[in-house]
Amino acid sequence: MLHSEVKGKLLAIVGAENVEDNNASLLAYSYDSTARFQALPDAMVAPRNTEEVAGVVKVCNEHKIPIAPRGSGTNLCAGTTPTKGGIVLIFKHMNHILEIDQENLTMTVEPGVYTKDILNAAIDVGLFYPPDPGSMHISQIGGNISENSGGLRGLKYGVTRDYVLGLEIVLPNGEVIQTGGKLAKDVAGYDLTRLYIGAEGTLGVITKAILKLIPQPETKKTMLALYEDLEAAAETVSAIIANRIIPATLEFLDQATVQVVEDFAEIGLPVEAKAVLLIEQDGPPEVVDRDMDKIEELCKDNRAFDVQVAKTVEEAEQLTAARRSALSALSRLKPTTILEDATVPRSEIAKMVKAIGEIAEKYQLNICTFGHAGDGNLHPTCLTDARDEAEIELVEKAFEEIFQQAVALGGTITGEHGVGMMKLPYLHLKAGEHGIEAMRSIKQAIDPNGIMNPGKMIEPKGRQRMVVEHQ
Fold first, then answer.
1. pLDDT number for residue 460
2. 3-state secondary structure of 133
3. How far is residue 68's CA from residue 81's CA, in Å, rounded to a whole number?
4. Which of 45, 225, 314, 359 could bridge across to 304 with cysteines, CB 3.0–4.6 Å?
5. Average pLDDT over residues 417-435
6. pLDDT tens digits, one per residue of 198-222
């Protein structure tokens, strides 16, 4: 519970209607989309502009009150769960597209704008914003930036980081800085823009972003390739890239995922296939036709038993929407769904898919695998029940082995979900002790009072490998 003095200061800054500390509100903001992590904050605060954000942060810094900046709560690493209490900062008022600059191909937005609305606004003027996390209909750009979100188009177009040109940031002491700008080049000092992308709210609060837009692709084609063997599908991914073809989308789904998605979407997905590749290419018509013809040939050379090209735009959109529904579809089957994102070099996809299957069999777990195979980002998803402590222990052992295998293949413990609290025990596998110490030094220098999303990504010295307590 907030001290009355602190609450009074917050009320004076944002107004009574924008501070909530009733039980219903605290419960609503006590968790995100990560299974098994929950903690009540002391209050929810909804500032209306940068000045109010700065005021709130100054109060919290003065009284050493934790702040957890939060978007829509689609986070999958417990990155927005207020595990240390304090303030949850939400941006329901700061949800405006401030400018679309067609001369400089940029869009300036506040953190509470939905990702899908950014895409639609760009399309309306003949432009394109490529990053498309699976939750893009409900995720907000501030959260996308904080997690450096990826998506289905990451193979060809990159991730959120590649489309952020500048930021407005409230530092932990309440001061406001501007980084970057509408520039193609800028090497004036440290690249603070990139430092804050993927920082998971641990270094400050993002209040504005300048996003890069690109010309809208002229056309697009969508294809399904069906396989009787998971490894053959994975090998096809490597073959496509090795032939210097970069599709806009190159997605992998195993049979279990296809079955569940078809039960959910009912659009006629091929449930008899052991694995499916969803492939899209966009660009000039002649390039798309040439690439898709070659991709079809490569799929068949690598033992695809059928290749289907969507005949209409509607059919193509149905296929892509079905892939985006994978997590929602899987979540219907068991009380607890744990979605991970181990990532490896594209050339190691086949080995990683095989390893996930072997680990699932070893621990007798139901792990479905899908993901952005084209950029090596797989999503092994375990369907379980958090109330079954014995099985949960096996799940944790299985995922630790999956992360170890990914790192051994030259990969990482997370490609787009972030570290948050969920992956704190595994960060040393990728970053090493000296890497963690360097990150900790940055955190200490910028946020000496440790108020910004504490307990996420960087723990105090000596605690980085502790298994977190599930509340």
1. 61
2. coil
3. 7
4. 225
5. 94
6. 999 999 999 999 999 999 999 999 9
Give the Cα separation of 172 and 448 in Å (integer).
8
Q: Which residue has the tokens 């409900």?
A: 138
Tokens of 293: 């013809």
What are 217-237's pLDDT values in tens digits? 999 999 999 999 988 999 999
- pLDDT for position 211: 98
Q: Say how far apart CA 181 and CA 193 lie, in whole Å.
A: 10
Pairing of strands 164-170, 214-215: unpaired
Could you give the CA distance from residue 166 to residue 195 in angstroms, rounded to a whole number? 11
Cα distance between residue 414 and residue 378, in whole Å:
10
Residue 1 is predicted with a pLDDT of 79
In 3-state terms the chain splits into helix, strand, coil percentages (rounded to 5) of 40, 20, 40
Q: Which amino acid is at 305?
A: F
Rounded to two decimals, the pTM is 0.93
Residue carrying the six token digits 């994978």: 326
Residues 430-448: pLDDT tens digits?
999 999 999 999 999 999 9
Nearest Cα to Cα of residue 65 among 447, 424, 439:
447
154-211 tens-digit pLDDT? 999 999 999 999 999 999 999 999 999 999 899 999 999 999 999 999 999 999 999 9
| Closest by CA position to 141, among listed 246, 211, 68 | 211
What's the order of all strands across the beta sheet hosting 219-227? 304-309, 219-227, 275-283, 249-254, 367-372, 377-384, 336-339
Share of the chain above pLDDT 70, in %: 97
Angstrom distance (rounded) from CA 403 to CA 236: 23
Beta bridge partners of 253: 276, 370
Backbone angles phi, psi at 438, to 5 degrees: -65, -45
DSSP letter string over 353-365?
HHHHHHHHHHTT-
Q: Are 2 and 42 in contact (CB under 8 A)?
A: yes
